[in-house]
Amino acid sequence: MDLQIFIDLQDKFDQETSLYEGINNAIKEMDRTCRLASAKLTKAHSLPQEQAKDVTESIKPQFVTIKQYIGELSQLIKPETFYRYHDRWTNVLQTACALVAFSIYLEELRLATPADVEEYLGFKVNTENADITVFVITLEEYLHGIISLFNELSRLAVNSVIVNDVKRPQHISAFASELYSGFQLLNLKNDSLRRRFDSIKYDIKRIEEVQYDLRVRNLI
């Protein structure tokens, strides 16, 4: 019996184990860095608009680190195996996109574009759902990040009133309503995206309630 076949199989097992370890390490470090960035961004909820840029500037080093680990991940993943392992890192990339979306809003009061995500994270968003030839951030990951923004906006509307920034919820409401209208134009076939989109209405309702309370109290 030729035992070489078993030796070759073990080599493949070892290579697979090494790949998994590399992927898991990159994901672990990205997740840790995203949590740190998220904790820093939370400070924006207790500050007026004019101080928001100080908060977004404070997490720029974390975006550099996230970009570095996505780069490490891209070196490990061949285009033909992208979707084989994609489920392992998609959640953390959704979180990274959400951080970009909230940072852009805080700093510039606008929607983060796929180009912004590429600038912050170092890799293109596959907006055309083209065949994978290089490592990309998927369109679904970008959209999940944008959907997460609604929850941050609803919190921001409430917390803005607490810091006596009563005009801010008006802009938040107008922005969130326009963004929601944009999402309604999409025919979302991804189950996860569709479920999360359905939850947006609760964030919109929360923002509208803040607006209503301010009007009732003649504060706007």
Structure report:
The chain is built from eight helices and two strands; from the N terminus they run αααααββααα. By secondary structure, the protein is mainly alpha-helical. α1 runs parallel beside α4 (82-108) and α6 (139-162) packs parallel to α8. The chain is elongated and about 90 Å long. The protein starts with a helix and ends with a helix. The mean pLDDT is 91.
Pick out its properties.
elongated; 220 residues; 8 helices; two-stranded parallel ribbon; mainly alpha; single chain; 2 strands
The level of helicity is: over 70%
Rounded Rg: 21 Å
Strand content: under 5%
Record the strand order, biggest sheet.
1-2
Category by helix and strand content: mainly alpha
- Strand runs, count: 2
Order of helices and strands: HHHHHEEHHH
N- to C-terminal distance? 86 Å
The number of helical elements comes to: 8
How would you state the average pLDDT, rounded?
Answer: 91
Q: What's the story with the biggest beta sheet?
A: 2 strands, parallel
Uncertain spans? none
Shape: elongated
